[in-house]
Amino acid sequence: MPYLTKAIHLANRIYRLHHPNHHHYRLGLGLPYYSALIHHNFCSNSRKKDDNNAIDLSQYPTDKIRNFSIIAHVDHGKSTIADRLLELTGTIKKGHGVAQYLDKLQVERERGITVKAQTATMFYDYNNKESNTNYLLNLIDTPGHVDFSYEVSRSLAACQGALLVVDAAQGVQAQTVANFYLAFESNLTIIPVINKIDQPTADPDRVKEQLKSMFDLDPSDVLLTSAKTGQGLEHVLPAVIERIPPPPGKRDSNLRMFLLDSYYDEYKGVICHVAIVDGCLRKGEKISSVATGQSYEVLDVGIMHPELRSTGYLLTGQVGYVVSGMRSTKEARVGDTLFHTRTTVEPLPGFKPAKHMVFSGLYPADGSDFEALSHAIERLTCNDASVSVARESSTALGLGFRCGFLGLLHMDVFHQRLEQEHGTHIISTVPTVPYIFEYSDGSKVEVQNPGAFTSDPKIRVVASWEPTVLATIIIPSEYVGVVINLCSERRGEQLEYSFIDSQRAFMKYRLPLREIVVDFYNELKSITSGYASFDYEDSEYVASDVVKLDILLNGQPVDAMATIVHKLKAQRVGRELVDKLKKFIDRQMFEITIQAAIGSKVIARETISAMRKNVLAKCYGGDVTRKKKLLEKQKEGKKRMKRVGSVDIPQEAFHAILKVS
Amino acid sequence: MLKSTIAPMLLTLHSKTKSNTILPLKTPVFCTLLPQSPPTVRRNASTNPLTIETPETPSYKLPPASAYIHLPFCRKRCHYCDFPIVALGSTSPETADDDPRILNYINTLIREIEATKTHFDPHPPLQTVFFGGGTPSLVPPRLVAKVLDTLRSRFGICLDAEISMEMDPGTFDDRKLKDLMGLGVNRVSLGVQAFQEELLKACGRAHGVKEVHEAIEIIGSCGVGNWSMDLISSLPNQTQEMWEESLRLTVEAQPNHVSVYDLQIEKDTKFGSLYTPGEFPLPSDTQSAKFYRMASRTLGEANYNHYEVSSYSKSSFECKHNYTYWINKPFYAFGLGSASYINGTRYSRPKKLKDYTNYVKNLEDGLVDLGEEDDVDEGEMAMDIVMLSFRTSKGLEFKSFVEDFGSEVAVELCKVYEPYMKSGHVLFLDDQRREITEDEFSSLVLDDERLENEIGFIRLSDPDGFLLSNELISLAFGVIDP
pTM of the entire structure? Predict the structure, then answer.
């Protein structure tokens, strides 16, 4: 099967819940407060599920609990279905509040993506064979993009099933494939849902065939819905209850709690989303982290319904939140196991430090704003601990940070959040991937910054390796030719080429990560009129002949513009960079030479001739104010520029070269 | 010639507020700027009027000795013009005599002059008056007389005052010019702009080449002893040959003064909507820089001094009025959209007639007082001084700059210009106006104290430095206000 590599890959990442016996769960005894709760439950079974005053979680042993997530390609309707399910169960009021309830960040709403995992607890009155049973359903919303696949797999680890949502017109897309395999490898029960069946171009039968041929999903198991009109939605939650097994944890075991995600709240501090795998958790208890060894007191515990709802405890199989006095989300390692202090537990498989695949320098657009940027990055990493941050400095851009990201989207989202949530303006350097170099002195180093490439002429590079990805591309068959061209131009190696159905081709490529870092996806979309879907996963390092490409202005290297490129592409990239810079650097009082060079060898060169005139001829009637304003504007313009030697470089030049691949 | 005639008067000032430092300024005395002008009776009688003020008064706080009068009327608006003007349409000069728009405007203008508080007692007489526009020569001389009378009774006018008027070809004849001269107008600024019919037409000028030659004739026959030819370079479709011709005909006409304005494309003008600077049919930057150099060379060879970015004159025929601007001296301004500089405060009047009329009403009602003392920001003042003095061939007086703004910023200024000195855009001169060589400068720059002592003036070179004056001045701004 084509996903062998991925399967192996995932085996290391994913916490799988193997439990042979989850349908016949026995109540555990032995914890005094627990029996008290059960007793309490028997006495108060008239309690309404939506009673605002108290929620009695003890009504819900694991066989009345279902934990599931929704996975989908972007825009296939994941968030809308989530909204409808929350409405259907009365968790949120219909027509009130904002759409995409679980996507809380502006960037998530704008881009239609989920970046942070969220959970929502719903209570559902399941009507079966004339008996009514209340179920507790936990919807665990996961990021859909591969950059966040580690988070996806973590979130999936807390689920026993997933709704695989596919657009009735667009059919299976690249992310559908990636997400399916993530869920499949996690042993989740998959409920296929074909959504948006109200569209005129909907073709559910074709999509059913795709699901059958791609994933071996039985067409008779497929639910047809329109989250927009509400059609078919009534079948979704019954299917969740009937098909997805309850969580398999042991109530009488020591507490083992899985940390799904965390975020920082101004008032409460760090709030962790958790899933109770085994045992129970009560307010006031002491818990410890396997990953950090730190201990905390449980200050508050409850469910997300849909906002924080304190319950004082969480029982086996339940999903909710914990506030424990952590100071930073850095202490809340996603995938960590939390347990009762002074007990011994087997850690849940799941914690693995994030692997950073894309690095770039971040600098304040206005050099004096370093402190503001520093503060913003600190605040943001409070909520996104997966970004690595180290200080660096550049002669052109001053003080800044080298940041490592899980992938491109992650980087983009981080940039966008810095601007939107913290109002900072940044200059990013060209993103780079971590190369490995072996030098003639026998040392082997990972280089995350072109600036760190050795400049010692005595030390030669004897070998170099670059990271690659396995890319999945799904396209209408008429675009196969252009896509093959694009991939080979990007040094791709075709691994697989088949058809999903009569109209759609499915291709797998090994591509150097460097080649997709900048504009691959945009290019792919533009040559396929937006019809291509694309996803990728990290793959191995391969030997590659790469060189450092320097940009020099009037002979002086601009550190922030150096890149590492494949030798065969150096000429073209150098030419493009030089041309871009010529376009964006204004004429100055001196002639400027722009050069691209590998070592001492210049491979591209342009000159910007000196400015001819810049003079305000007339100062009419002594009106110097106007002239002065103009000159002050000019001065401010100069101030915003970055200076290397005697050359002023406008910020736009830095932005422009980001787009050179 | 300027340097030797300027007798700096040392003035000091005590700072008045904590936040806004008021600066001490040392200024050349304007009356002695051009000693060739004969002494006036008034001046002989009362000695130097400036001595009335305490010696500590900075120049910008002195009573203005100059007045700008805006006469906004034009026959039509030229295509490059965004000044506050009033287009009269095709009225003949005869009917213009009784045009109620002109009469009303002059009345308002006179009310403005009369309502202006002076805060200076006694007030020394004006040494320059400049009628700018618009086309001031469209205003009937009897109305000009009323304005001058008002000025005279309000402030006094020196007997030898320079009284300039902008005049357009085709708007005046012998009689009118003689009338104006009889009123005291002794300097004419003739708006020729170009010597090519097609260019004049393309600019929307209300006159042709024939009127230009007639106007030059009239000026000659009336015996105007001090007149300027105003030209515009870099007009659309202007060729090098045309510009050569214009310069040649200018030299042949023998004006005492030539103004050469490089065309500026302003946003809300016809040209602004039609053309992009540097793009056809406008000359490229390279071409218009060449035009500038041609003017500098041609006029220089004909013995005109390039004493300011856009101004050339025969020895001692610099425009005294405009020179007050460059040496940061105060001046009154009256009329639509005009800008005054009194007590360190610059004020631009409303550009719309209705707003201007309201402004004058408020002035009369005592709601506006431009003479009020405002604290002057030291940085702003330093920028003004650099910006204005760099327009002149004399340049920045370094010693007084050091004294007024401190050696730190002055030394910094020298250092920022070091590369531009080497590239020939900036000249450093000693107190005797000898140019400091690159080698000398390289050693001076190592020792701040020597730098301060040795440098007398900083100026922009002609034409390279002048051509890039905006760049160079904004560098100085960056030093003064980082």
Answer: 0.66
